[in-house]
Fold this protein.
Amino acid sequence: MSSSDCVFCKIVSGRIPCKKIYEDEQILAFLDIRPVSDGHTLVVPKAHFEKLHQCPPEVLSKVSSCVGKIVQAVVGAVGAAGYNVLCNNGRVAGQLVDHVHFHIIPRNKGDEVFTRWPAYEYEQGRADEIAEKICERL
Ligand code: AMP
């Protein structure tokens, strides 16, 4: 499955070049063209799925089994102290390319890659209410 105007499908098929770092039958990993830190890598299933929840479990399982291995190599190569694995879904969540992908972002102390994490506390009863609604849908 591929989408003719999808930039990652074009990378997968070789119509757009990339700095490839890993490939197997189902997965491709390459350096992000506009990194937020050295070694910033994208891991994508070769098949086109727009969002995480649309990926079949076997594809997600394959991606996640590769991510650990790739993380180890990336983090070791750039000597990072930590990393984030991030999957943006939807424009409001920062997804610009509509082909599911996982960012591996090497992190170092004081790098200021993510400067805002707007955590707050639930009002009384709100967490129960939300958890119940979520569970009803599972
Ligand atoms: P997102 O905002 O989560 O959809 O991330 C899309 C990422 O794809 C961005 O970090 C872009 O820099 C990256 N990107 C877009 N086009 C290319 C490309 N041709 N090669 C490598 N990375 C790309």
Notes: Residues 88 and 95 are 5 Å apart (CA to CA). The longest helix spans residues 57-78. Residues 7, 16, 18, 32-34, 42, 88, 94-97 surround adenosine monophosphate (CB under 6 Å).
